[in-house]
Amino acid sequence: MPDIVAPGDRLGERYRLEHPLGTGGMATVWRAVDLVLDRAVAVKVPNEGRPEEFARRLRQEAQAAAALTHPNITGVYDYGEHEAGPVGWPGHIPYVVMELLDGETLATRLARGPLPWREAAGICARIADALAAAHAAGIVHRDIKPANVFLTAVGVKVLDFGIAFTGTSGGPVLGTPAYVAPELLTGTSPTPAADIYSLGVVLHECLTGA
């Protein structure tokens, strides 16, 4: 399948893509320019696969994150579906526009070794603050892991509410196996306790490096 987007493409005639910042299993995040507000943003677009499923997850991520205003949760600015998909990509290209962050993921930092306990405690306390705000709004993240935590010069940001549980979403067990609470593997509906379990695994990894 050809690349879904390329540098210079304009999504929604508003967001001009510059270069990729990182690629995951389902999506790539691009640095882009908002041509209306003249500011740099991050734009997440699909890599390949099922456009309907990806569009549903992106909408869910945008709706969940947009419902939250918290200094430790990445801001979401916009969601759209670009009309001109490439050959081999049926339908429109879904995308979500987010706050552009400068720094690295916690996973990247931990690849260099464990953290001093004070630093680990501080990072996990900020993650806990973000989760408390999400839980108060009835949202369970479901995928807390080092790759979904971003470290910037001014603080910690929780990323990726793409599989968040709002009480109406459901379906199969989702998340990253090493961080998923055991009760979710039996089909139990996610509760805030599942995020706290995942945070405990993250804290252990921060302190031990494994």
Walk me through what this model shows.
Keywords: ATP-binding, Kinase, Nucleotide-binding, Serine/threonine-protein kinase, Transferase. The chain folds into two domains: 9-99, Phosphorylase Kinase, domain 1 (2-Layer Sandwich), CATH 3.30.200.20; 103-208, Transferase(Phosphotransferase) domain 1 (Transferase(Phosphotransferase), domain 1, Orthogonal Bundle), CATH 1.10.510. It is 28% helix and 24% strand. It has helices at 51-66, 106-110, 117-136, 192-208; strands spanning 10-11, 15-23, 27-34, 39-46, 76-82, 93-98, 103-105, 149-152, 155-158. The chain has a six-stranded antiparallel beta sheet, with helices on one face. Strands 7-8-9 form a three-stranded antiparallel beta sheet. The mean pLDDT is 85.
